[in-house]
Amino acid sequence: MGSLFIGVLGIVILLRATARLRIDADARTISVQPAFFMPVTVFRFEDFQHFLVSKQTFIITVNATVAMIILKNGRERSVMLHQTLFLTKPLQKITAEMAAIMEIED
Q1: What phi-psi label fits residue 41: left (phi over 0), alpha (psi between -120 and 50 degrees) or beta?
Q2: What is the pLDDT along the chain (106 residues), one digit of tens a residue?
Q3: Cα–Cα dist 9/4, whole Å
Q4: Nearest to 51 by CA among 101, 86, 12
Q5: Do residues 91 and 53 touch, judged by C-beta distance below 8 A?
Q6: CA proximity to 68, closest of 15, 31, 105
Q7: What is the rounded CA–CA span in Å between residue 91 and residue 84?
Q8: 88 alpha carbon, distance to own chain's centre
């Protein structure tokens, strides 16, 4: 049972490693492909709503993620930008870099 869990976890990690996120500042678009076999979705900078930083803690921070919340065709979508273990400081840098690329003022 344990080896099955490790195997499934390995497949999930492998699929996540095939994800692609492309930012075209000239065209003001973000292209997202969650896994190699899924279609590419294109979002415009104008669809951006806000960043979401979430963390799971159990005495210490175990996992933290940063995502962009985008409103497209009346639906709220979440695009994961980065995930870290134990630290949230790198996520703050990523949101600042994305805001600079997208020319969003604080």
Answers
A1: beta
A2: 888 888 888 887 777 777 788 888 888 888 888 877 888 888 888 888 888 888 888 887 777 888 888 888 888 888 888 777 777 777 888 888 888 887 776 5
A3: 9
A4: 101
A5: yes
A6: 31
A7: 8
A8: 14
